Amino acid sequence: MMFSRYALPSDDLAGSATSVVVDAPEDGYDAENMVAASGTGHLNLPSRPAKWAATSGTATLTFAAPITVRAAAFIYPNWDEDLTVTLSSGAFSINVPIPDKPDPDDDWSFSPWVEFAGAETGSTWTLTVTGTNSQNLQLGRLMLLNRLRQMETDARYGGEEQEERTIIEQPTYFGVETIYDMYNVRRRFTGDFGFRPAETADLLTLWRSARNRVLPWLLIPDEDVNDAWLVRFDDVMYSRTFQTVDFNSHPFRVREVSRGMPWP
């Protein structure tokens, strides 16, 4: 399994916007919720989304000075697959393909991402959703990335991917369970990476930039799949094992940031 693309927390520039505005704001779901300033790991998490009081619309981010963006990710949207979604700045515009939901009867959706053909610079960036969504639009996090990095390694055999779904379970004394689905799906990867010294330095940079578990960061497990993960490290300690000359093994355990309870 190839963990191919990722971004440091500081690679996301959206949080430096001086204003974030949606054209049809929903009270209590502020537009600013979709971005997070660098270094604020506990603020504006995607469990507290931005939301429109409409089934289509725009969001506009304005910056004090032009920013250079090479990729973007859209974390935990509730967008239907047949919508037209674009990200634009000045003359630049790119379509955002919306992946199919894992289950059409479920609230859980994947997080799309796009990489530009080249660097694009602008002081105003606009997200436009055209069509009619099945419910009012919401977005957990918009990430405007000045870099999308390559993780040059294969996960070693024996890695495990897990998917958990939050429920409330109330059993009786006689073993009858009442179960409530909370629609909060989270994925986790547990395994080991085999690294040469240069790749070890890259992983250590990521670890330090994320301050171990403090800051969430973007992981794209498979660059051929339109599904980004916003994750934190599971561990609070960095470690590596010197297996042989010029080869190290590293525990690699990450878990998606929670979507929180479903928003009405």
Blueprint of the fold:
Elements: E1 5-7, E2 19-22, E3 50-51, E4 57-75, E5 84-89, E6 92-95, E7 113-130, E8 138-139, E9 141-145, E10 149-150, E11 160-171, E12 177-195, H1 197-209, E13 217-220, E14 229-233, E15 241-244, E16 247-256
Antiparallel strand pairs: 1-10, 1-13, 2-4, 3-8, 4-7, 4-9, 5-6, 5-7, 11-12, 12-16, 13-14, 14-16, 15-16
Offer a few descriptive terms.
264 residues; mainly beta; Jelly Rolls; 2 domains; eight-stranded antiparallel beta sheet; six-stranded antiparallel beta sheet; globular
Assess the beta-strand content as a share of residues: over 45%
The helix-and-strand class reads mainly beta
**Share of helical residues:** under 10%
CATH fold name of the largest domain, please? Jelly Rolls
How many helices in DSSP terms? Answer: 1
Query: What is the number of beta strands?
Result: 16
Distance between the termini: 37 Å
Shape: globular
Largest sheet: 8 strands, antiparallel
In the CATH hierarchy, what is the architecture of the largest domain at level 2?
Sandwich
CATH class of the largest domain, please?
Mainly Beta
Order of helices and strands: EEEEEEEEEEEEHEEEE
Instruction: Give the oligomeric state.
Output: single chain
Low-pLDDT windows of residues? none
